[in-house]
What we know:
This protein is 26% helix and 40% strand.
Amino acid sequence: xxxxxxxxxxxxxxxxxxxxxxxxxxxxxxxxxxxxxxxxxxxxxxxxxxxxxxxxxxxxxxxxxxxxxxxxxxxxxxxxxxxxxxxxxxxxxxxxxxxxxxxxxxxxxxxxxxxxxxxxxxxxxxxxxxxxxxxxxxxxxxxxxxxxxxxxxxxxxxxxxxxxxxxxxxxxxx
Length: 174
């Protein structure tokens, strides 16, 4: 029987880091579940739900990961995962949304409020400021579960919200 932990890492980004980390976890007998990895500025953030064999304690995993040269200075934790490791139905992606335009403070708040208003659940969100010659371009990508009976109206409201902010909106069903 496996025990489930949450591994959280924030460290300097560099090529090969994910391979090094996941290779060590595999060597320890750990089994990755839901995992996210994102470059944030010059850092790399990795979060993973991971099943460990009974004989392997969270503290030992943390010690092993800290022994990797690239993670010596990382913010790193391995802690018990107290939540259900399987997705609820509202965690399955039904729609992918992309909003693009000039940086508009409050955009993510407005979009998330619209989704909440329609009973939708944000499964993944990525927001990125891309420098350019005529100011920063902002890109928001959202993967969401939207109740089927509200999907058409919800997507129209998202598109209208983007248009009010002079941004473009693209979406499709997953």
